[in-house]
Amino acid sequence: MQLNSGTTVVLGMGNLIHSDDGVGVHAVQRLQSDRRVPPGVLLLDGGTLGLTLLNRVGGAQRLLVIDAVDTGSPAGTLVRLEGKELRGMPGSGSVHQLGFADLLAALSITEQEPQELVVLGIQPGSTDLGISLSPSVAAVLDQVVEAAITQLATWAQPAGVDKTRGTVSAGREVACTN
Question: What are the structural domain ranges in the chain?
Fold first, then answer.
């Protein structure tokens, strides 16, 4: 699939049968029915597809990833990562076949990196087998969706408009759970 220049992609990653690891997919499912998502934004359920996603997101101008990330914080903590914060992100310890860090490396190697990349990460409480989010993560799902809408609205603003970030704090070293 060849993306048009200027394409914005929202990629929800995670495994729906590993409890909180599926939070990214749950968030994208909510965004699919949210009328505030700007026209032309591609919403993708990336599940556990790993490098298969390269053909789906390669060439996007802007990529917003929503995923469970282990920051060592309390369950349900929301972090926003971008730029240098994403370099050197560990790819091991994954419950998926290949992690998000591997996808980032492949995008770089194939020179298909997005111009802008933001990760909204949620600290999982449990990645054990189960189809429900833990109470701590379920309680912040609406907040994750709001943070995604805020980021999309920022990207949709015309050039020259102040595009300052929202209030979600940047994280420290993290390990994606996918």
Answer: 8-176
**How many CA atoms, within 13 angstroms, populate the side-chain half-sphere of residue 60?**
26
Side-chain-side CA neighbours of residue 85 (13 Å): 19
Furthest-apart CA atoms within the chain: distance in Å: 47
DSSP of 66-84: EEEEE-SSPTT-EEEEEGG
Q: Which CATH superfamily is domain 8-176 in?
A: HybD-like (3.40.50.1450)
Residue indicated by tokens 């349900």: 76
Please give the average pLDDT of every successive group of 10 residues along the chain, which has 178 residues. Answer: 74 93 96 95 87 82 92 93 70 49 82 90 94 97 98 86 49 42
Amino acid making up residue 107: L
Instruction: Please report the pLDDT score of residue 88 as a whole number.
Output: 56
User: What angle do helix axes 23-31 and 141-156 make, rounded to 10 degrees?
Assistant: 60
pTM of the entire predicted model? 0.82
* Amino acid 46: pLDDT: 86
Q: How does DSSP assign 117-165, residue by residue?
A: EEEEEE--S--SSBSS--HHHHTTHHHHHHHHHHHHHHHHSPTTS----
Residue 140 tokens read as 């912040």
